[in-house]
Design a protein that fits this description.
By secondary structure, the chain is mainly α. It has helices spanning 3-28, 31-47, 58-79, 103-121, 125-135, 141-148, 152-172. The longest helix is centred in the first third of the chain and has 26 residues, at 3-28. It is globular and about 55 Å long. It starts with a helix and ends in a 5-residue tail after the last helix.
């Protein structure tokens, strides 16, 4: 690989690593899993840098790589349930920006994060990823479908099932709409 390609790759890593990590963290729910997904994603991007055509946005290309690596990672963890003990999202809250809200709001926010994280543990990998892309990343259905490699209707169905599981989990804790 020419030195110029390595320089391009290093610039890519520097510019997008925080975005990639935050996306991976939202998709996996654990810091270590997110780090593993980002590492795998960067390796994949490095090996396949010549496949990036430049017509698409670089961030879209990286997004798809991170999503696919996260899905593979989550599926692997499903096969080894003893290997997966998610870190509560409240333990990694410092990765998200905050405007220093009052203590009551912080406590309520931490409670909500714990409830949502617990509900997301009960989702399948596709449900979790499509839900996170839609509700945490604000992605459109078509974008989610493309990133995950499924049809629009399948993406909608996975999101619907994820939302239903989230509602059931929240209802079990006495939270209703």
């Amino acid at each position: 690989m020419p030195d110029g390609d390595v320089d391009v790759f290093l610039a890519l890593v520097e510019r997008h690593r925080t975005y990639m990590y935050n996306l991976a963290l939202r998709l996996t729910g654990r810091e270590q899993d997110a780090k593993d997904v980002v590492q795998e994603s960067l390796l994949h991007a490095f090996v396949h840098l010549d496949r990036f055509e430049g017509r698409a946005d670089l961030r879209t290309w990286l997004n798809r790589i991170v999503v696919n690596c996260a899905l593979d990672h989550l599926r692997g963890l499903r096969r080894r349930p003893d290997a997966y003990a998610p870190t509560p999202l409240s333990d990694v809250a410092d990765t998200a920006a905050s405007a220093s809200p009052d203590p009551e709001r912080l406590a309520a926010s931490a409670d909500w994060r714990r409830l949502v994280a617990a509900a997301m543990e009960g989702m399948s990998p596709l449900e979790r990823v499509t839900f996170a892309l839609r509700h945490f990343e604000g992605r459109a259905i078509a974008e989610i479908a493309e990133a995950v490699g499924i049809g629009n209707n399948a993406a909608k169905q996975h999101i619907f099932r994820a939302v239903r599981k989230l509602r059931l989990a929240l209802a079990a804790h006495g939270v209703s709409r």
